[in-house]
Design goal:
With 269 residues, this protein is α/β, with parallel strands linked by helices. It contains seven helices and seven strands. The N and C termini lie far apart (37 Å).
């Protein structure tokens, strides 16, 4: 979808060598932005750049978001390359299955480092530049922030903490510096990693076509580009002063919905 919502803006997108992050980078480019494209390793870099078509409006950056100097270097690299920062999408995340019996403290700390502390460090490092442009931050959260699946304990807690961080900074940074901070709590999205994860759990390759209407009333999952289009809207100036909000991107109500226990995810009737 081509538009000019982000014309002449510079956007940092973390975790953008695939999945939702790559879709967000593509949507930002299609909306007129220049993009600092971040990924953890160079393994998928060439494919990501090829998907985006290359060009001088994209600059790659490879690094571990938990590194001591990562945030400062990411911001400095963006300023050297593009001269300013108008927006940040904190998309990089560590999704790992864990429940109360097997969530070790080292694992818990690692998940929090990636999903909560790294976004904070990036925002903190970028504040002076975002203040100059009256920029916007979009944190990519999860509907699990509200309660969470029992098998996603550490991940769910980290996204709940990110949501509180979003609301706090969305108030203080907007009130004092004009920087908007909002969060998209994303539901079930059909990404490459989700496909691999479900097949690893023993589901058939076409499992996503068999989702029960309890979990997918539309009889399909969200597409990464649908999340990306929403991210572009929240990065743009279209929402005026809206800040400190957490918005659910899901196809059914999250709070108050109590499906029966042991309800099958797949509709095999």
């Amino acid at each position: 979808m081509q538009n000019n919502l982000l014309e002449d803006k510079v956007i940092i997108v973390t975790g953008a060598f695939g999945g939702i992050g790559l879709a967000i980078a593509e949507a930002c480019l299609n909306s007129g932005a220049q993009v600092l494209l971040h990924g953890r390793s160079e393994r998928n870099l060439s494919d990501a750049l090829a998907h985006l078509g290359g060009g001088d409006r994209v600059a790659p950056y490879v690094g571990d978001v938990t590194g001591d100097n990562f945030a400062a270097d990411l911001v400095a690299t963006t300023i050297r390359r593009f001269g300013k920062i108008n927006g940040i999408v904190n998309n990089a995340a560590y999704v790992v299955s864990s429940h109360v019996d097997n969530t070790t403290l080292p694992l818990f700390r690692e998940v929090l480092e990636v999903n909560t502390l790294a976004p904070f460090a990036i925002i903190q490092a970028a504040v002076p530049h975002l203040a100059e442009t009256k920029g916007a931050v979009v944190n990519i959260g999860s509907v699990n922030a509200y309660a969470g699946e029992p098998g996603l304990l550490a991940y769910s807690v980290s996204k709940g903490a990110l949501m509180t961080l979003t609301r706090n900074l969305g108030d203080s940074l907007h009130r004092d510096l004009g920087i908007r901070v909002n969060q998209l709590n994303v539901g079930w999205v059909l990404t490459e990693k989700e496909q691999e994860r479900k097949e690893g759990h023993g589901l058939p390759p076409d499992w996503y076509k068999l989702i029960s209407p309890m979990y997918a009333p539309a009889r399909r999952l969200l597409d990464p580009m649908e999340v990306a289009n929403s991210a572009v809207w929240w990065l743009s100036d279209s929402l005026g002063p809206v800040s400190g909000q957490a918005i659910e991107l899901e196809q059914h109500p999250i709070i108050g919905r109590n499906p029966e226990k042991n309800l099958d995810v797949l509709d095999t009737d």
